[in-house]
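Dear support,

I submitted the protein below through the web form. The confirmation email said the job was done, but the results page showed an empty box. After a refresh the structure appeared. I'm attaching both so you can tell me whether what I see now is the final result or a partial one.
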Amino acid sequence: MHTNHYFKKFVYFSPSSPLQCLKKENCIYVPVLKAASTYFRNLLLYNGWEKVDYNDIDWNNNFVFGFIMNPFTRYLKAFTHEILYNLTNSRKFIEDNEKKILDKYSNGHFLLYTAHTIPITTIYGDKCKNISWITLDTSHDATEQIQYMLDNYNIKLDVPKEIYANKSSKKEREFYEYIRNLYKDDNFLLLSMLKEDIKLYYSVLINS
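What the results page shows now:
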């Protein structure tokens, strides 16, 4: 019981948790790292949204929304980010350890578990079912989907021609493709880590 309480405290109250939300009137945006959070955070701040603590959300009355993408894509984007910016000679590291990290026959001896790779369902727990999720990797424009939702609350978004987004560099894109081509979607440990996110993602797709 004590351990469970400590875990919940860490996830929901730790200053390092990616839970800095934004609010305007009755609507609240909850971020997911490596899911366009820099762009949408800056867009909403530009439109006068204010920072709000995650624990101040009124789940009975607030309209809460966030963005979701294919869990494998998000993990590999995060993997790319962490390896490139936290390790020297990152490509050599992958090549030297390819079998342990990526070979399906090893069942993946190595996974990255960071603020960028942590599953959405771990961050938000049971509250995932109370969040209106917008998919980022479908043919629908995510910004237009936000506006469609916010129209119900008479909130308009001014979308400038340019707004800062943490866009991938050429080096990141090339390294991502390299990793994606090596990784397989039948890696047992990765599937175990992302199992609940996969369920959430496909439930959003089915109901969208």
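Response: this is the final, complete result; the empty box was a page-load delay. The beta strands are 20-24, 27-29, 50-53, 63-68, 132-135.
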